[in-house]
Amino acid sequence: MIAAVARSAKIISKPEKRIYTPSEKAIYRMTNGARLARIYGESANIHADFEAQAKADILRLTYRPENIFIARDLLNRQTGELFDGYGTLVEGVCSRVSPSYLTASGRRQRKRILVKVGAVKLLTDQRWRFLTLTMPFLRADVATVFKIQTMALQNFKKNVAVWKRHVQGAFFAEEMVIGDATTMIHTHYHVHVHVLMLGQHIDQWRIADLWTRCVENACRRFGVECLITNLVSNRFVVDIRDVSKYARKKGMTMEKAVEELCKYTTKGSEYEKVPRREIVEIAKALDGRQMIKSYGCFNSQKGKIKEGESTAAPSLDTKCTTDAIARINPKRRQPSMTERGAAMIQEGKRGEWLRWLTVEFQRRRDFRFGQLSFNQPFATFKTLKNERWFGVSARPPQTARPIANQETRIRNNTRNDADLLNAIVERYDGQQSASASGQLREIIHDSAEAFHLIH
After folding, report:
1. For the chain, what are the domain ranges?
2. What is the b/e burial string over 259-298, where b = at least 16 CB atoms within 10 angstroms of the residue's CB?
3. 3-state SS, residue 162
């Protein structure tokens, strides 16, 4: 009886999860992105990597206040509902160092996986399960750690008795955790794999035993020490949960499982644990990897055209004996923003590159103003620098004064910057710890542009 009362009291006293507003999320995205851009830029200067330096410059402009917007009355075209949101006007670089790119990539992956999962009709003996395969912290560089994980996972999927015989389809996602910097040669990296699998029941100890043998063989292949910390079972930790339509005590819903599968590969806070000299190496290793892979009946690679096989229909022109008409003068691909910046920095034109980048960002922002106004006709937009514009069908307030150009943008800086900064920080007081509030205040003070925030 006493235990039941204690459990009920514990449930009642559990604090509710706070729901952040779009403006608070936008401020966090700007401060977090600016911090990552600064850290990445320091690492690029250490390596004298021109491409990384160009990416750092692009990231700095991406997370300025005038490039982050808040929107009201956005239209969900599937349900017809209106909602509030936030976003980035110009995404200059597709890198996993960029929080906005990670968010957009995860959103696309969730939609793709939910469509494939929703089309599955379970048989009598089939079930959905969420599996987490862990690895120890390995004392090796990040490229070697990913090679070990890739080899172990390939051998794991090739096993017939445990895996192939019981699993018909699965999605694999990688997530990397970075250990604290030590006096060792390399920082400790820990990669674990999330798996959403469809198939018959498999005992947890069989999966753990197979995964442990695969990781140990891969570590032995690359000459890396592999220590098992779980001395009770002498296996790596493997977590298995049932996935169903409704949440259970030791399970999860399909939406929660897909969200866990598609979450960030590496959180922004993890980069602060790494020595500056290794951040560029980590970013390059992550940018070149496919972080979510499919298997079995979900494998999108099935039916892929083999190398050397033509995809075009035979030509009916009797003067042409080839299967397809070759392009005599193919159009050359324009260099990307990063490639252009790396070339200009290498030539010693850093100032000219920054001026070109500023003009190019402004040109793309002007295009995005009109694009968002057309795609969201009922919405009201506002950047964190208090630059407003409206959808084509939205009615601006009577006090709004449109400027001369074709976009309906309004600048109305009426609030005092210092009072605004205090109002932003007060939002976090009482909800966050004193250290978190102090860090937020310090981050916002570090950015001169943050004094123009409008909440």
Report:
1. 16-93+348-455, 98-296
2. ebbbebbbbbeebeebebebbbbbbebbeeeebbbbbbeb
3. helix
Q: How are beta strands 138-139 and 409-411 bridged, if at all?
A: unpaired
**DSSP code, position 429:** B
Q: Which helix (H) or strand (E) element contains residue 74?
A: strand 68-75
Q: For the chain, how far is it from start to end, CA to CA, in angstroms?
A: 50
Beta partners for 348? none
The helix-helix angle for 142-158 and 204-222 (nearest 10°) equals: 130
Strand, coil or helix: what is 97?
Answer: coil
Residue 105 makes CB contacts below 8 A (sequence gap 6+) with none
Q: Can you spell out the DSSP letters for 338-375?
A: HHHHHHHHHTT-HHHHHHHHHHHHHHHHHHHHHHHHHH
pTM passes above 0.70? yes
Question: pLDDT tens digits, residue range 151-194?
Answer: 999 999 999 888 999 999 999 998 877 765 443 444 567 788 99
Q: At 272, is the secondary structure helix, strand, or coil?
A: helix
CA distance 43 to 187: 15
The dihedral formed by the CA atoms of 103, 106, 108 and 110, expressed in degrees to the nearest 10: -140
Give the sheet arrangement for strand 409-411, strand by strand. Answer: 82-88, 68-75, 380-383, 387-390, 409-411
Q: Which of 5-14, 104-113, 150-159 has the highest mean pLDDT?
A: 150-159
Give the orientation angle of helix 50-62 with respect to helix 22-47, to 10 degrees.
Answer: 160
Q: Can you tell me the distance from the alpha carbon of 217 to that of 208, in angstroms, rounded to the nearest whole number?
A: 14
CA distance linking residue 349 with residue 52, whole number of Å:
16
